[in-house]
Design goal:
The structure is a single chain. The protein is mainly alpha-helical and 136 residues long. Helix 1 runs antiparallel to helix 2. It is rod-shaped, with a radius of gyration of 35 Å.
Length: 136
């Protein structure tokens, strides 16, 4: 049979043990909270970067549509050039050749802009992959 003093000592020992475990739990919760905050910051950055990629993608796609239209116009002048050559219309041929060359240069410059957007998208996508790896 235990005495009151022994019971009190045992209760104090249990209390110390409980306090120690609570402190350990609180410490681990603080670590988890910090890790979650860090992950959330990474995820927010990824979200912003994904929006940037989407904006670049929209710009690239618009340029690609413009390229299609420019190519169509250029092809019309190529057709005029062929027809004027067949029918011996030198002036028409020269004018069509100038227009065809003009459209060709526009196609080329627009395609380069489109590629620039695409390369920027790829670069950001690579960064996103790195950030996601850090977040996990």
């Amino acid at each position: 049979m235990t005495t009151e003093i022994e019971d009190l000592m045992s209760a104090k020992d249990y209390h110390k043990e409980i306090v120690k475990w609570r402190q350990m739990r609180n410490h681990h919760h603080n670590l988890l909270r910090g890790a979650k905050e860090k992950r959330d910051k990474y995820n927010q950055r990824v979200k912003t970067m994904i929006q940037e990629v989407q904006t670049l993608k929209d710009k690239r796609n618009n340029l690609n549509k413009e390229i299609e239209n420019l190519k169509s116009s250029r092809d019309k002048y190529v057709h005029v050039m062929k027809q004027s050559k067949v029918y011996g219309r030198a002036t028409t041929y020269v004018n069509a050749a100038k227009q065809q060359e003009l459209f060709h240069k526009k196609v080329d410059s627009t395609a380069k802009k489109s590629q620039d957007y695409h390369f920027k998208m790829e670069k950001i996508s690579d960064e996103i992959t790195g950030i996601r790896d850090k977040a996990n």
